[in-house]
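Protocol step 4 of 5: obtain the predicted structure for the target chain.
Materials: sequence only (see below). No template structures provided, no constraints applied. The aim of this step is simply to have a reference model before the mutagenesis design in step 5. Sequence pasted as it appears in the construct record:
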Amino acid sequence: MSVGGPAEHITPYDRLTLDEATMVSLLASRTRHEGLVEYFGAGLHDELVQLARAVRRQRPRMRRRVYVLPGIMGSQLGFHRSGGRPHDTLWLDPIDISFGRLTELKLSGESTLVALGAVNYTYLKLTLSLRKAGFDAVLLDYDWRRDVATLGGRLAERLAADGHDQVAIVGHSLGGLVARAALTHDVGNRVTQLITLGTPHAGSAAAIQALRGTYSVVRKLGMLDMRHDAEYLASGVFSTFASLHELLPGAGTICDFDLFDAASWPVQGPGPDPALLRDAASVAQRLAPADRRFDVVVGCNRTTATRVAQRDGDFEYEYTLQGDGTVPLALGLLAGARHRYVECGHSDMPLSNRVINGTIDLLESGRTRRFAASPPVRRAARKRISDAQLRQEYAGKVDWPHMSPRERRVFLDTLNEPPKRMQPGAPKPRARPATRRPRRRR
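Step 4 output (C-alpha cells):
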C-alpha cells in the first residue's frame, strides 16, 4: 500500500463504488444483486429497486433540474485506479479504515484524493424519488474536507456550464452552506429555489466534539481503526479539515466564549488548527443571506448537544431534545428564510419519506402540509457530560471481519448517534477522572 495513492488490494466496498447510472441499472435489473442487498440492507434495497424500476418505466417530464448536494462525509473519497479496476475508496470503506488508512484523508497541499460519487446509501433514495416525481434530479459529489468558499465556487462553475436558466438545489447539512456560497456568484441568479435539510446555518456542537475527538463518529471510527484511536484521528486527520472549522458555532449562540479563538480551547487533548480557526471566523461573510428562494427544514426532538460551557479546563455539553441529534434547533435557523419543522434525525432526513415527500411538495408548489410551521415540542431532562466523560464512550475495538451483515449495517447507520446514556430516561452520567495526555504539537 502506498501513501497518497491507490492500494493494490481491492475490497468489496471498492467494487460497490459504482457510477450512479450503473448502480441504478443494477437495482432496476430483474437479477437480484446480493452485494447490493448487503450494502443497503433488505428494506432500503427493496425501496430503491421499486424506485429504479419506476424511473426506468416512466416517460420523461420537462420539469426543472434539481441538484442534490450531500452533507459533510456524504461523498465518497478515494483514488482512481487505472486499467478498468474499481476505484480505491477510503471514505467510507470500513475495511481500509480498519487497516489504518483513514490517516490518508489528512488534507494538505499534497493530497491527491478525489470525490468518487455521493454516498448512495444516504442520497440515492432522495434522488430517485425526485426523478419519479418528474424532476431532472442530479446527485453531485464534492470533497467535503475543503472550505465552503472553494466548494461553492466549484458548484458555481457547474451551474455556469449547466446551460439551464432555472435550477433548484436541495442541500443536506453542509450541502446547504455550499449552495449558499455558490449563490454569491453571478451565476447564482439561475437558482430559483434552495431547500436546505438539517443545515447548520450557525454551526453545530458536533464540530467541536469532532475536533476534540469526542464526537460519536470519530470515536466509532477509532473503534474500527486497528492502528489508531479517536484522539489520534482527531488531532492528525479531522483537525486538517477546513470545513469542520467553519461549522463551529459563534460566540453567543450556544456558548458564551469565542470558539474561533484558539485560547478558548482546553489545553489538554486534541483541538483545532489555529490557522484554520482564523480563516473560519469570517465564514458567514462568504455565504449568501436568505431571500424568498429559501426554505429551511429543521429537525427536532432528537438528543442533541445544545449548549457548551468551559468547566475545569474541559468542555461540558448540555444535551436536550432541541435539535436533530447533530444540529441544535437554534443553529439550524436562518433569518429571512421560511422555516419548516419535522421530527427527524439529522442523518435520516434524506431517507425519510416525510422529508422526501415534503421536499417534492415544496419544489412543485412552494407549499406543504408534511412539515410543521413551528417546532413540535417534547420535554426531557437536561443532561450534562464533559469531553473527559465522552472519551469513556465507544471505547475499545470492533471485530469487523467477524461481524454479521446486520451488525455492520447497524454500526454504520448509527455512527453519529449520541451515547446511550444521554438519551431520555438514561441514568445521569457519573464524573470520572480524566486520563491526561499531552496535546499533539502541530
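Step 4 remarks: Residues 429-442 have pLDDT under 50 and may be disordered. The chain is about 30% helix and 15% strand.
Proceed to step 5.
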